[in-house]
Specification:
Blueprint: H1 2-20, H2 26-40, E1 47-56, E2 59-68, H3 74-91, E3 95-104
Parallel strand pairs: 2-3
Antiparallel strand pairs: 1-2
Helix pairs in contact: 2-3
Length: 111
């Protein structure tokens, strides 16, 4: 009986520590990879950086930075953001909210 109580206590402490440290477990990491792949499948997105997911109860909240052309308009990026959000909801409904930030591509060096 003492062994069961001890093992449950250790598991509870470990889980609480992860929550307090805002740590990401295996499910969170795999969801991050899915989100990155979805982003790279959107026309106009050249890279996806800094995918951060945080578990909050049974759902996840997150952030992602998408690299887009420097000359892209805000209106075009908003269309990309909406399409990206729609695809994420279809493939990963456990992600409740995802903040999407535009990051301009680096300027090309003059030849």
């Amino acid at each position: 009986m003492a062994g069961v109580i001890y093992s449950v206590g250790v598991a509870a402490i470990k889980e609480s520590g992860f929550v307090l440290l805002d740590a990401c477990d295996g499910e969170c990491v795999s969801l991050g990879m899915v989100v990155r792949q979805i982003a790279l499948g959107i026309p106009g997105v050249s890279a996806a950086h800094v995918v951060r997911l945080r578990p909050t109860g049974p759902v996840f909240f997150g952030e992602i930075e998408l690299t887009v052309p420097r000359e892209m308009t805000v209106e075009r990026f908003d269309a990309i953001r909406l399409e990206f959000s729609r695809r994420v909801k279809e493939r990963a409904p456990e992600i409740e909210s995802l903040s999407v930030v535009a990051r301009p591509e680096a300027e090309k060096a003059a030849a």
